[in-house]
Each structure stands twice: as C-alpha cells, then as structure tokens.
Specification:
It is globular, with a radius of gyration of 20 Å. It is built from 4 helices and 19 strands. Helices cover about 20% and strands about 40% of the residues.
Length: about 280
C-alpha cells in the first residue's frame, strides 16, 4: 500500500510540478542500531517508505521539520517526504556500519512541488485511506479474532489501575495479528493518546544503550479513544510479520492523553516467535 501511494504521488508530481529535477537521487543509509536524523527546511507533512524494512517516523501532531529513519537488512527502497508543497525523494539502503547519522536537507534538493489542492486531496487523508483500503484485506481476519470469547491476557502490565494486556498473537500469511486489551480498574476514565509497538535490544548492564525500532501497524480494528472507568476494551493491531533474536524484545507502549498513567509492556522474543 505504501508503494502504491508513493507511485500515485509521483504521477501527480510529474503532471503538476513546475520544474521536475532529473538528477540522480541521493542515497541515505540506515540500520536497526541507530536513528538517522533528517532535518528538512520546512515542517514534514508526510513521509512514505517503499518497503516495511524501512521506518520513517516524525511528529504528526506538533509538525516538526525532522524525522528519524531506521532499517532492517534487505533490499534497497525509496523514501518520499512532503514538506508543505515541496517533494523530496531518496534511495534508502541498509548498512551495518554508518559514518553519517545526521542529514541536513536544503531546499535545492526538492524534486518538485505539489499544487495546494493536491496536498489536500492526496496527502492529508493518507492515514485514513490506508486504514480503509487495508481494511478490505485485514478486516475479516481481525474481526474473526475479536468474535472469539475473550480470555485472560497472556502478558499484562499495569499502572495506577490501567492494565495493558496481550490476549493473543496470530501469524497469518505475511502478517502478525495482535489482540490487545486495555482494562480500566480505576474510577477515572482513560483517554488514549497513542499505542505503539517497537523492538529494542535487551539491556545487559547499566552502561548498555537501548536501540529501538518502531513497528508501523498495517491496520487497526476497534482501537478505542477512551476506556471508561471499570471498563475493558479489546481491539486488534496488524503488523507485517517479524521475528526477534534472543537479544531483542518487543515493547508495547500505552500513553494517556493529558495524564501520567502510561504503561509499557515488555514482550519476550519467545512470545513473538512462538505465540499460542
């Protein structure tokens, strides 16, 4: 789906750009041990990678001008970034040893511009459209998992009456389906700010730094905006299938909006690689 969106944007760029740059695309190298920081001359509106082996993250709420790139071993891909109405495009490759960790992008590196109406119609609804289009593929399987009788989560973590749990993990085709529960055992409603899954190295000593790689969900079903007091919500996140080595683990992080009842659930590589 990301590749399809990137191709669609490139078609629009070809049709509407005032000056298309034919220069060879620059290459940016990344790996799963360090964050590569990209600083753009304008705030980032959208960032798309052509492969799930590469993850580009940026602040969608506060609109900042920098993003972070990480990668896992595999074939090269591409990165498309929209800043205002300017388009930037790069080849991205995995590299075990990195010499450059920060890229300062100049306006001259833009490959063209989008008309304002195109930004509104094509770029802004991207997240919503991804959910709708991917829903045709994933909704049936996710709904089937939720239709089963709820069971006690295999893994749980709590903070001030907020309990985050994983009820089930299922591999199907090239996807990982995660059935998640949020239980509010407190007397105060819980407003969800975000829920994210990442993988990280396991700390073996105080001096060991933690290297984190964010996992972008392909689809979500029934993710709640609020969990009322004494209520439990069940929902499904769908990710591209992945496995973990024994020196890494997954972390599911729940963040409260305008609150401090955050929960971080650590998931062993054994549970990811061998779910029930």
């Amino acid at each position: 789906m990301k590749i399809y969106i990137a191709i669609s944007v490139f078609i629009v760029v070809s049709a509407l750009s005032n000056a298309q740059n034919s220069r060879k695309l620059d290459t940016i190298y990344a790996n799963d041990q360090k964050n590569i920081a990209l600083f753009f001359p304008q705030t980032i509106t959208q960032g798309i990678t052509g492969s799930t082996q590469f993850v580009f993250t940026y602040n969608r709420e506060k609109q900042q001008n920098f993003g972070l790139l990480q990668a896992t071993p595999g074939e090269e891909s591409n990165l498309l970034v929209i800043c205002g109405n300017s388009i930037y495009s790069y080849i991205v490759k995995y590299k075990k040893h990195l010499k450059k960790l920060n890229y300062f992008i100049s306006e001259s590196e833009s490959i063209g511009e989008l008309a304002p109406e195109v930004i509104k119609k094509v770029i802004e609804p991207e997240l919503h459209n991804l959910s709708i289009n991917n829903g045709k593929q994933y909704n049936k399987s996710a709904a089937s998992l939720l239709s089963k009788k709820p069971r006690k989560p295999h893994l749980t973590e709590r903070n001030q009456g907020i309990v985050l749990g994983i009820e089930n993990i299922v591999f199907q085709d090239s996807e990982l389906y995660m059935v998640i529960q949020i239980s509010n055992e407190s007397s105060l409603d819980f407003d969800l700010n975000f829920l994210k899954l990442s993988t990280q190295t396991r700390q073996k000593g105080k001096s060991t730094s933690v290297q984190t790689l964010l996992k972008q969900p392909l689809y979500q079903l029934n993710t709640p905006a609020m969990v009322k007091a004494n209520q439990t919500k069940r929902f499904v996140y769908v990710f591209s299938k992945f496995s973990l080595s024994d020196d890494r683990r997954a972390v599911l992080e729940l963040n409260e909006k305008n609150g401090a009842r955050d929960v971080a659930l650590k998931i062993s590589h054994r549970f990811i690689n061998n779910p029930d």
